[in-house]
Amino acid sequence: MIDVTSISKSYGSTRAVRDISFHVAKGEVLGFLGPNGAGKSTTIRILTCFIPSDSGSASVAGFDVNSAAIEVRRRIGYLPENNPLYMEMGVLEYLRFVAGMRAIAPQQRSQSVRRVVELCGLGPMAAKTIGELSKGFRQRLGLAQALIHDPPILVLDEPTIGLDPHQIIGMRSLIRDIGREKTVILSSHILPEVSATCDRVLIMSKGRIAGTGTPAELAAMARSGQELLVSIRADRESVEAALRDLPFMTSVTHLAETGGLHRYSLRCESCEDAGERIFRAAVDNGWSLAELQRTAINLEEVFLDLTTREAPR
Which end is more exposed in the chain, N or C (fewer Cβ atoms within 10 Å of the end residue's Cβ)? Predict the structure, then answer.
């Protein structure tokens, strides 16, 4: 549904986006993750035809964002980060106004409004003005306007910013429900946001793509690789020396000691046969091996690893 090939964008001497390429499949929820200033919003503005790229190409639902911008906009629902709303308008009045702007036929507008009011849980607020709504309901209204023309693609830029925990849970659930039927790009710098709602993650850093894949796939790309937790009863110095000599080991960290039992966090580039090798080392050296378990490196660790690497110039 979305194809991006080698797009770049600069603002004066600042290179906001640096030659990035990616693809979003139909029905996929893609998380766009990165620290502030990583280039996420600039990329989204290019895809939604607000600004042109300096180079490269991008297509949405088969239409080029530069030569067929109107067709692209017809197929995208967009909730920008600042969610601009007319505070003096009523909720239904605003949605009818957006339906007209989206060129929905007059005889179909009431039905379209009812559909998004129900989908976004706005029924209790339908009689209120926008200025009376809480932040959470304003975000829901912003999502409703993005869905009013029933687009196949939805682009959400920081959709839960400023919401309280209860509102965030509600918005995540709503996005997951919508993602069953539509292609969604969700841009955020909040790690739990992406983990909770997205099928795949694309991490941006300093205008480049630092990594993309499921959280498990990204963990394999990270410098830190995978983690093993082991507890061994033996002389600490000889244990650590033997563990560091294993060819796949990248770090050995002593966590605690209880009654002669030493617990370690082991990081390795590939832990496929690490457990077997550690077990053999314990047998060969006469250690008492009390614990051996593999743990998944979480998205936060991967994010920090990938976004703190030095970007190529």
Answer: C
Q: Which two tokens stand for residue 14?
A: 């600042």
Coil, strand or helix at 5: strand
Tokens standing for residue 127: 């009689």
Q: Over 60: is that where the pLDDT of 297 sits?
A: no
Extract the runs of DSSP E, i.e. beta strands, from the chain: 2-11, 14-24, 29-33, 55-60, 63-64, 76-79, 153-157, 183-188, 200-205, 208-213, 226-233, 249-258, 261-268, 288-295
* Distance from chain centroid for Cα 231: 35
Q: What is the pTM of this model?
A: 0.71
3-state secondary structure 255-288: EEEECCEEEEEEEECCCCCHHHHHHHHHHHHCCE
The answer to whether 19 and 8 are in contact (CB under 8 A) is yes
